[in-house]
């Protein structure tokens, strides 16, 4: 059983556009939890999805076993499939026949450093499907970008 559950979401009004991120971090054994959110005036959905995970993992003060719940296939595949290849290729990816920089490299590098400290299991949840925590982080992320509209 993981030490903590991390529920994350990010979103934008337009892509790019004003965006928000949010997370809930829960210790299942004690039931203790914290949540946080924030926004940016001009960003992308993928940046906000990544920011939510980075901010959530950054709150941990010691190496921790984490189950990450997200509706972001971008984050999930990035962690489980793409990131090892990007790192091996100097944070570049093939686009056709040429190499190009990985989008959101700054956040992927930050996430990579955090993943080195924690054992993270990715679990995909369907967005807007009645999953209580996913609905809550979606609500927080949307509220976070409202001030930029």
Brief descriptors of the model:
single chain, 149 residues, alpha/beta, 34% strand, globular
Summarize this, please?
By secondary structure, the chain is of the alpha/beta class. The chain is 39% helix and 34% strand.
Task: Give a verbal description of the structure.
The protein has 149 residues and is an alpha/beta fold. Helix content is 39%, strand content 34%. The protein is built from 4 helices and 7 strands; from the N terminus they run βββαβαββαβα. It has helices at residues 45-58, 73-88, 105-117, 132-146, and strands spanning 4-12, 17-26, 33-43, 65-70, 92-95, 98-101, 119-124. The strands form 2 sheets. Strands 3-2-1-4-7 form a 5-stranded mixed β-sheet, sandwiched between helices. Strands 5-6 form a two-stranded antiparallel sheet. A hairpin with a 6-residue loop joins strand 2 and strand 3 (33-43). Helix 1 (45-58) packs parallel to helix 3. The protein is globular and about 50 Å long. The N and C termini lie far apart (41 Å). The relative contact order is 0.24.
